[in-house]
Design a protein that fits this description.
single chain; 8-stranded mixed beta sheet; 9 helices
């Protein structure tokens, strides 16, 4: 049964013990006056991820999944009228849920997305986050992407059902394709005041310049081809 004042936060995980607790605490510290339901979908982690999740989450589902499958499964098990999709290495702005739900009161709005900054404090990570965020927003103005990157989505559950959730054929950029579909059901609002802190670990681990080019390449491939990409992450990120 769907609860009107409940917001369900769906977090896919795989070996996220380093940052997951901070992420979950950021959800528990929301200023939202209604109920925040936390659903963690863990893809059979080999570290302490599931144990940490059980300390904070209302529901922990353990099943080997891709990212798209995990998000759809979490949404299926959710009871909220609004679903927030959050990465396990992202700290949620304390006002994200309260401000997002205000936007979503409009019948014309289907989804709300915030911006992001680097969780790491080094200059390269901060610069990478800034560039990636602004590049994503600029590409979005072309009308094919809707504020992508490591962004956090808050979407009306009824709109999620209309587009049949995430396309599980996408092993990467599933959020890009999903946001494009949702854009066909109503407005997608970018609220720049909602700045979540997300890890730039992929850029740091693989080289900032190399990963920036890779991320840009994926955006251009999607814009050109509009289909599931052949590129795959090794597993759930």
């Amino acid at each position: 049964m769907t609860k009107q004042n409940t917001v369900s936060i769906v977090i896919p995980t795989f070996n996220e013990e380093r940052l997951l607790e901070s992420t979950l605490k950021s959800v528990r510290n929301q200023t939202y006056k209604g109920e925040c339901e936390i659903i963690v979908v863990d893809s059979i982690s080999t570290d302490r991820t599931a144990d940490i999740a059980k300390k904070y989450a209302d529901k922990v589902i353990i099943r080997k999944t891709t990212i798209a499958e995990a998000k759809n499964l979490g949404a299926e098990k959710s009871s909220g009228s609004v679903i927030v999709f959050l990465d396990a290495d992202t700290l949620l702005d304390k006002d994200f849920v309260s401000r997002a739900t205000k936007h979503l009161k409009s019948p014309k709005v289907s989804m709300v997305v915030g911006t992001f900054a680097s969780l790491e404090s080094d200059i390269k990570s901060k610069l990478t986050a800034k560039l990636w965020c602004e590049i994503c927003n600029a590409i979005s103005k072309l009308g094919r992407l809707s504020y992508v990157g490591p962004a956090t989505f808050a979407v009306k559950k009824d709109k999620f059902k209309i587009v049949k959730g995430y396309d599980e054929n996408y092993t990467i950029f599933e959020d890009v394709h999903f946001s494009a579909k949702i854009g066909g059901t109503g407005r997608v609002v970018l609220d720049r005041s909602l700045k979540n802190m997300t890890s730039m670990r992929k850029f740091k681990n693989h080289g900032h310049f190399k990963w920036r080019l890779y991320a840009l390449k994926l955006c251009l491939m999607y814009l050109a081809l509009s289909r599931p990409l052949d590129v795959k992450y090794a597993h759930i990120r």
